[in-house]
Structures are given as structure tokens and as C-alpha cells.
Design goal:
Blueprint lengths: L2 H20 L4 E7 H11 L3 E7 L12 H8 L3 E4 L8 H8 L5 E3 L7 E4 L13 E4 L6 H18 L4 H27 L7 E3 L6 H7 L2 E3 L12 H14 L3 E5 L5 H10 L3 E5 L14 H18 L3
């Protein structure tokens, strides 16, 4: 081998090593729960490594951070949360972890939905008060706002990837817009007066507002409270009187209360909806898009059964 050939080989090897050394490691981004984690993966692509705190089928309302959780947060380049009071444990976790970086609130651009929290739940058993509904991702228009906020936050931490994040966010937002168009068409086939359903807790208010569905629930916006006996009795009476056919359990909630209501009202349970968490990878709601499509399909199918 000639001296020139050996020199070229050594030079090429040097360039390869230099390129490897200069390549930016993926951003370590912590997402508070699985739906946000999926959004981050769609926007961040191979420039991010996502750690999700509350995983598939997990209940973020009842989540208790661990030392391992605090360690993951402490080493993050960015922490992304939903906000609107959804992660009640967040401030304690940030303090315990010693994290000094940016905490991005994905719902920052969302107009919050207010609701009357039901009396007869938890410590405020006699207090009917107004509360912020934190489940904003149940409206796909809000989901697109989440995506825009996430893209901006990633670009601020990683300016070299800003255009990459922007392009991926725009493509993902188009998919969400197409899904929204499909959902509106599916639900518009149900007469407005028949778009009524019962769920385990008040997690679908934004969906109801977006698609003209009246949604009733035996408990409030969280999952840790218990409904009063009088409240359950009133709900059963309403189901019978108004012939509400769509009754659903949720993947994060104990199904016993809904099953009791369905049995006593003579209405079958329409299926399982995904509210605050995705399913596992082998389930029907492994991504935000799959979750929304599954939920709408279940709701429409059950409501159509009630028309006949």
C-alpha cells in the first residue's frame, strides 16, 4: 500500500472520529405522563430521549414520585408537564429532585374549561365549587396547541434542531387536524339529543364541548374521591328516565362503580375508554392518535346501538 493511500485512510478515520465526537447527544426530556410522552416523541424524533413518569395505564391523579423519579428529573435537559393542576405532585417532585432547568407547561396556550365540581366528594363534601378541568388534551384543537408549545420549548433548548422540531410538529399537527375532521363526521351521524354518555370520572369534558356530547359522571375531575350514595342514585334515575345508552369504564379507574350503575340502570357497559393514560404497546391506544380514534369509535358504536 502506498504512502498516499495510508495517509488517506488515516485522514478518513480521523474525520469519522471527529464527526462522532461532535455529534450532539439526544436531549433528555422528562414527560409527566404517557400522552405527553407520545407527543414529545412525535415532535422530538431522534433528537430527544424521553423518560415518562406516569406510564401506560397509570393514574396521574394518584401518582406518588419515588427517589428514582427524582433522579430522572434531576438529570433532565427539559421537563414537560400538562399543567392546569393535573400534576398535583409536581412542585414536591421538582423541589426534591433539585432540578434547576426549565419546566414547560404544555397547556400554556389552552383556554381552560371551567366546571362545577360535584358536592359529596372528598374533603369538600358540602362545597359545590368551580374548578379547572385539567384534561385539555381530550380536544384535538388543544392537542395541536400542546404540540406547538412542545416544539417551541425543544427549539429553545436545542436551537440547532429548531427547524427539525418545527417541521415534525407541523406534520404531526396535520395528522391531528385530519383526525379531528374524522371525529366530527363520525359523531355528527348521531342525533344531538342522543349524544349523551356516562364515564367513571369527569375526564372528557373537553371532548364533549368539542363534539356536542353531554357527559355525566359519578365522580369529579380526580379519581381519588368517592361519589355519594345519593349522587349515584340520582344518576341511575337519570339514565333510566332519559334512556342514556352509552356507559363506559376507563383504563385508569376501578370499574366497579360504573358496573354497579350499569347493572342497576339496566344498561350494558359500552367498553373501555382511555382518558388520562395510553394503553401498553400491544393495546388499542398505544399513541395519542390511536387513543383518540379508539375512544371516538367506541362512543359512536355504543350510541348507535342505543338508536335502535
Amino acid at each position: 500500500m502506498s504512502m498516499l493511500a495510508r495517509t488517506l485512510i488515516v485522514f478518513c478515520a480521523f474525520l469519522a472520529l471527529a464527526g462522532t465526537a461532535g455529534a450532539q447527544a439526544p436531549l433528555h426530556v422528562v414527560a409527566s405522563f404517557s400522552i405527553l410522552g407520545d407527543m414529545l416523541k412525535n415532535v422530538g424524533g431522534d433528537r430527544v430521549r424521553v423518560t415518562t413518569l406516569v406510564g401506560p395505564d397509570g393514574d396521574a391523579h394518584a401518582y406518588e414520585p419515588t427517589p428514582a423519579t427524582a433522579k430522572a428529573v434531576r438529570g433532565a435537559d427539559l421537563v414537560v408537564v400538562s399543567g392546569l393542576g393535573f400534576e398535583g405532585w409536581l412542585d414536591r417532585l421538582i423541589t426534591a429532585s433539585g432540578y434547576k432547568g426549565t419546566v414547560v407547561v404544555a397547556s400554556a396556550a389552552v383556554k381552560p374549561r371551567k366546571m362545577r365540581e360535584k358536592p359529596g366528594h372528598g374533603k369538600d363534601a358540602h362545597d359545590d365549587h368551580e374548578a379547572i378541568d385539567p384534561h385539555a388534551w381530550q380536544n384535538l384543537a388543544n392537542g395541536r396547541l400542546y404540540v406547538d408549545t412542545i416544539a417551541g420549548a425543544l427549539g429553545a433548548v436545542d436551537p440547532a434542531g429548531a427547524s427539525y422540531y418545527g417541521e415534525r410538529a407541523a406534520a404531526y399537527a396535520r395528522r391531528l387536524a385530519d383526525l379531528d375532521t374524522w371525529a366530527k363526521a363520525e359523531l355528527s351521524a348521531i342525533p344531538a339529543g342522543k349524544r349523551r354518555m356516562i364515564t367513571s370520572h369527569d375526564a372528557f369534558g373537553y371532548l364533549g364541548d368539542a363534539y356536542g356530547i353531554e357527559i355525566l359522571s359519578p365522580v369529579g375531575i380526580g379519581t381519588g374521591s368517592e361519589p355519594s350514595a345519593a349522587g349515584v342514585k340520582k344518576l341511575i334515575k337519570q339514565i333510566k328516565a332519559e334512556k342514556i345508552a352509552a356507559v363506559f369504564v376507563e383504563n385508569i379507574s376501578n370499574p366497579r362503580m360504573i358496573e354497579q350503575i350499569a347493572k342497576e340502570s339496566g344498561v350494558g357497559v359500552g367498553g373501555e375508554l382511555y382518558s388520562d393514560a395510553l394503553s401498553g404497546a400491544d393495546g388499542p391506544a398505544a399513541s395519542y392518535i390511536e387513543m383518540f380514534k379508539h375512544n371516538v369509535s367506541q362512543i359512536v358504536a355504543t350510541m348507535k346501538q342505543g338508536l335502535y
